[in-house]
TrEMBL record:
Its EC number is 2.7.13.3. It comes from Sphingobium cloacae. Residues 566-782 form the Histidine kinase domain. It comes from the Bacteria. The keyword RNA-binding does not apply. The keyword Magnesium does not apply. Residues 155-182 form a coiled coil. It is an enzyme of class 2 (transferase). SUPFAM superfamilies: ATPase domain of HSP90 chaperone/DNA topoisomerase II/histidine kinase, Homodimeric domain of signal transducing histidine kinase, PYP-like sensor domain (PAS domain). This is histidine kinase. It catalyses: ATP + protein L-histidine = ADP + protein N-phospho-L-histidine. Keywords: Coiled coil, Kinase, Membrane, Phosphoprotein, Transferase, Transmembrane, Transmembrane helix, Two-component regulatory system. The chain crosses the membrane at residues 6-28. Gene3D superfamilies: 1.10.287.130, Histidine kinase-like ATPase, C-terminal domain, PAS domain.
């Protein structure tokens, strides 16, 4: 073997080195390419999986009509395989609706010719699936010139959602129009602000409230409805609502139609859409609230002044109000009510005070009362307490769920009602058993009420009276029972006058059987008339007898008066003769008389004087009783007259040891009258006082007077006169009987009274046994 030369070895080394470098490069490049190929294959696989899971199925239509598509297209079209050519896809049996297939063919042709993109919805034959085809010219990497790439989407769910959204959008549009119409038609101002708090929408009420011409003008001018109050502007209030993300309400004043009104302004944040607002006129509401508070205070004051007990419970059944009569009626303590006890606790307190009706099962009774809160209608019941108190309880459920209780003490009314019922029964029994015949006629002339004697008197059947006949029918039925049938007209007229003219009339009627009835028709306060009949047959007979006897007595009295007068005058003649001869003998015409004879003459003179006075008294008394006593009318000085009478009786008083006192005041004065008659009356009073008083007694003559009358009083501390004796003194019959029996029939007091009354005065005798006697004469000044 030939050894290599150095040059050759070098060249060979270089060649080997180059070959080794190329080999290394080739190995490295292959490794890189293999790695890139692996990466490309992985990327291809991922893209294939991604494309397979894409919501759209890609389809490539080549220029020659060849179709490349995934298997999903066959599934969507309901075919066993993917169509190989476009003609199969758009054929009648290609799986598409004929109209959709024709339209797809036209769109693909247009895209191949003009490079136009399109979107077309298509449906398979008999399928509910909706496919959306989006087509565009294919790039050179996908197909040659004239190719079209189709992306077919299953838009069934999307289309349903789109339809739903369209319906929702339509509903929202209609709702928005309704809301816009509502806002526009709202009677109160409404507005909207953008996020920068500028007005963007106002309704007609807002424009009218700010006196604007149009909504545009108001928005452009930024006219605010309310004023700035306390440094808070409408914009700052809206910004506060947006910042707090909650509605903000406030009461602010505003000028509406030239009037100051109180408005309740509410700002409602709408997120990024801005702030909406509205304003409600609260002026009437605030006035109503003030009026409500005033009425509530007035109602409380009124309830507190009622005599009935009042208690009001709230919706929570707690006591909210009570008045003083409620506390007094149930014996409650006010400090135990201030905490607002529940309804049940109040009943417990009332039970502890024994001011509720006694019940065996009190809890059950209390539960029944608790149902008052739920009752739809007012309730009323009566409570009878242990002490006999009758309460009327009125329970009124309130609209707010509370309860108003009113307790009225009806004890007195119940007692009065019971007394009234008893009185009515007594009156009915009395009415039915009266001796009189009684009937009550109503204002229309019908008989409404009668007693048994009324029925018996007229002899009417009960059936007729029960029918309440009119007065005309009633009188026609009883006409035959009257002695004079025409008198029924009189009865009818009297009833008519009492019911219609309200006049009381009386009369009498005779029955055919001889009975006589007095009747009267009396108007009653209720418009009715009371008709009474009284049988006066016996009374009329007795009356006639008494009338005849009275006439005889009057005649006898006249004879007696004439006899007394004649006898008085007849007695005066011999008495005057006796006293005349006695005076002549006492004067010595018959010669000198012995002392004994003079005493006899003096006795005759005294006796004739006393007898003359007694005759005058009897004559005066008789004339006074007959009314023929003559009285003079002249000024009479009563002071002088009284002193003269006292002087005439003074000797007799001293003889009996009686203290005679005279007390005459300056007011006694004078009167117009007969001085002799007044003195005569005063003499009789003084003589009686001295005669009947014992030794050591005291007799007082007192006189005083006033502007219209004068008074003379004779009083003593003697034995006095009893009531029976006083009656006998002034009774002529009693005095005559006493005279026949031999007793004393004094005429001093009767004569003094007659003389006083003859002057138009008044005589009064006041006396008690062992207490003395006082006789008073009052005389008028005129």
């Amino acid at each position: 073997m030939t050894p290599l030369t150095p040059l050759a070895a070098v060249v060979l080394g270089i060649v080997l080195a180059l070959w080794l470098a190329v080999a290394v490069w080739a190995i490295m490049n292959g490794t890189r390419m293999r790695r890139e190929g692996t990466q490309a294959q992985g990327q291809f696989d991922r893209l294939s999986v991604l494309l397979g899971s894409a919501p759209a199925a890609p389809v490539i239509i080549h220029a020659d009509g060849h179709v490349e598509a995934s298997d999903r297209l066959a599934k969507w079209l309901g075919r066993d395989r993917v169509p190989a050519f476009l003609s199969e896809l758009i054929a009648e049996d290609g799986g598409l609706e004929p109209e959709d297939a024709a339209a797809l063919g036209r769109e693909i042709g247009a895209a191949q010719r003009a490079g136009k993109s399109f979107a077309l919805p298509i449906r398979g034959v008999g399928s509910a699936r909706l496919l959306l085809v989006r087509g565009a010219p294919a790039g050179p990497m996908l197909a040659s010139n004239g190719g079209v790439v189709l992306w077919i989407f299953d838009a069934t769910d999307s289309q349903a959602e789109i339809e739903t959204l369209k319906s929702t959008v339509e509903q929202l549009r209609e709702a928005l129009q309704a809301v816009a119409g509502l806002v526009e038609a709202a009677p109160f101002p409404m507005w909207h602000r953008t996020p920068d708090m500028r007005l963007s929408l106002v309704n007609t009420a807002y424009v009218h409230a700010v006196d604007g011409n149009s909504a545009r003008e108001v928005i452009e001018s930024g006219i605010e409805l309310v004023e700035t109050v306390g440094g808070i502007t409408p914009q700052s209030a809206a910004a506060e609502a947006m910042a707090e993300d909650a509605p903000v309400a406030r009461l602010v004043p505003a000028t509406i139609d030239g009037e100051r009104r109180t408005m309740r302004v509410v700002d409602v944040p709408l997120g990024a859409a801005g702030v909406a607002g509205f304003a409600m006129d609260q002026h009437e509401l605030e006035q109503a609230r003030v009026e409500h508070r005033r009425l509530e205070a007035a109602q409380r004051d009124l309830l507190d002044r009622l005599s009935a007990g009042v208690a009001r419970f709230g919706p929570d059944r707690a006591l909210r109000f009570w008045n003083q009569p409620f506390i007094s009626l149930f014996g409650l303590h006010q400090d135990r009510l201030t905490d607002g006890p529940l309804f049940e606790r109040v009943l417990d307190q009332m039970r502890d005070a024994r001011r509720v009706p006694e019940h065996r099962d009190f809890p059950a009774w209390r539960s029944e009362r608790r149902e008052w809160f739920l009752s739809p209608d007012p309730l009323e019941e009566n409570w009878l307490l242990a002490d006999g108190t009758h309460l009327r309880v009125y329970a009124q459920p309130l609209p707010d769920g509370g309860l108003l209780l009113i307790f009225e003490d009806r004890t007195e009314q119940v007692q009065l009602s019971s007394a009234r019922d008893t009185l009515l029964r007594v009156r009915t029994a009395t009415f039915d058993n009266l001796f009189e015949s009684i009937g009550v006629f109503s204002s229309d002339g019908r008989l409404s009420l009668w007693n048994s004697r009324f029925q018996t008197t007229w002899g009417l059947p009960e059936e007729m009276l029960a029918a309440h006949p009119r007065i005309d029918d009633l009188m026609q039925a009883v006409q035959s029972r009257l002695a004079k049938p025409q008198q029924v007209n009189l009865v009818r007229e009297l009833v008519r006058a009492a019911t219609l003219e309200r006049k009381q009339r009386v009369g009498h009627v005779g029955f055919a059987d001889g009975h006589i009835f007095e009747f009267a028709a009396i108007p009653l306060p209720d418009g009715n008339a009371l008709f009474t009949m009284l049988d006066v047959t016996d009374s009329r007979r007795v009356e006639q007898i008494l009338r005849d006897r009275n006439e005889a007595l009057e005649q006898a009295d006249k004879v007696k008066t004439a006899f007394v007068a004649n006898m008085s005058y007849e007695l005066r003649t011999p008495l005057t003769t006796i006293s005349g001869f006695a005076e002549m003998m006492n004067a010595g015409y018959a010669g000198d008389l012995s002392d004994t004879a003079k005493d006899y003459v003096d006795g005759i003179l005294q006796s004739t004087s006393r007898l003359s006075m007694m005759i005058d008294n009897v004559l005066d008394l008789t004339q006074g009783e007959a009314g023929t006593l003559s009285i003079e009318h002249a000024p009479v000085d009563l002071t002088a007259l009284a002193r003269q009478s006292a002087a005439r009786i003074e000797q007799a008083a001293d003889a009996k040891g009686i203290d005679l006192a005279v007390a005459l005041q300056d007011s006694l004065g004078t009167v117009q009258g007969d001085a002799r008659r007044i003195g005569q009356a005063l003499d009789h009073l003084l003589e009686n006082a001295v005669r009947y008083c014992g030794k050591g007694a005291r007799v007082l003559l007192h006189g005083d007077g006033g502007p219209d009358k004068a008074r003379l009083v004779v009083s003593d501390n003697g034995p006095g006169i009893g009531a029976k004796e006083q009656a006998a003194i002034f009774d002529p019959a009693t005095r005559a009987e006493q005279a026949r029996q031999g007793g004393k029939a004094g005429i001093g007091l009767p004569l003094a009274r007659q003389l006083t009354e003859a002057h138009g005065g008044a005589f009064q005798l006041v006396s008690e046994p062992r207490q003395g006697t006082m006789a008073v004469i009052e005389l008028p000044r005129g």
